[in-house]
Amino acid sequence: MAIKNRFPVSMGDVFPHGAYVVSEVEAVRDFDKSSAGRPVQQLDKESGLPVWSVSVLDADPDARRADKTVVVKLAATHQPVPPETLAGMPFRPVEFEGLTVTPYVQENGGRPRVAYSFRATAMRAPTVGSKPTPRSGGNPGSNSEAA
Q1: Which residues in the chain land under pLDDT 70?
Q2: What are phi and psi of 13, to 5 degrees?
Q3: Beta pairing class for 113-120 and 69-75
Q4: In 97, 126, 139, 143, which residue has its Cα 20 to 30 A from 72's Cα atom?
């Protein structure tokens, strides 16, 4: 079967209104290999590279409160550096390259729901004058399931 765990998606599919870095980039801990006092960084199963995480704010005004901030994991040999803060803005606008999504069922007490895990190969400052590509089909402003 050609379907893998991770589905490639465009930045505009996931963040049609853009995204902003709201945390530091941190190493993701491998809880199976770590022990007390000896943390081990998680390695990406496909590339073998160390995994880093960053929290981003989804700029979609219609996103539910619980879906406003999402974590994107990046596989990279060195700690990725977020784009610079723009003058007059409290957050750093960001675009992700090689973005993928993995849907999974999140146990939420007696109410399981579909949730999404995001991965990327790199992050960069948005291209000057670029706008996120609108989602194809459906409501272009709706992003409540994607984040």
Answers
A1: 1-4, 128-147
A2: -70, -40
A3: parallel
A4: 139
d(CA 134, CA 124): 19
In 3D, which of 44, 112, 111 has the Cα closest to residue 76? 44
Separation of alpha carbons 138 and 84, rounded Å? 34
What integer pLDDT is reported at residue 115 of this predicted model? 87
Q: pLDDT tens digits for 17-40?
A: 999 999 999 999 999 998 888 999
132 and 18 in contact (C-beta within 8 Å)?
yes
| C-alpha to C-alpha distance for 145 and 63, rounded to whole angstroms | 8
Q: With contact defined as beta carbons under 8 Å apart, do 97 and 118 qualify? A: no
Task: Provide the residue ranges of all domains of the chain, joining segments of one domain with +.
Answer: 7-124
Q: How far is the C-alpha of 141 from the C-alpha of 62, rounded, in Å?
A: 7
CA–CA gap between residue 50 and residue 45 (Å, rounded): 10
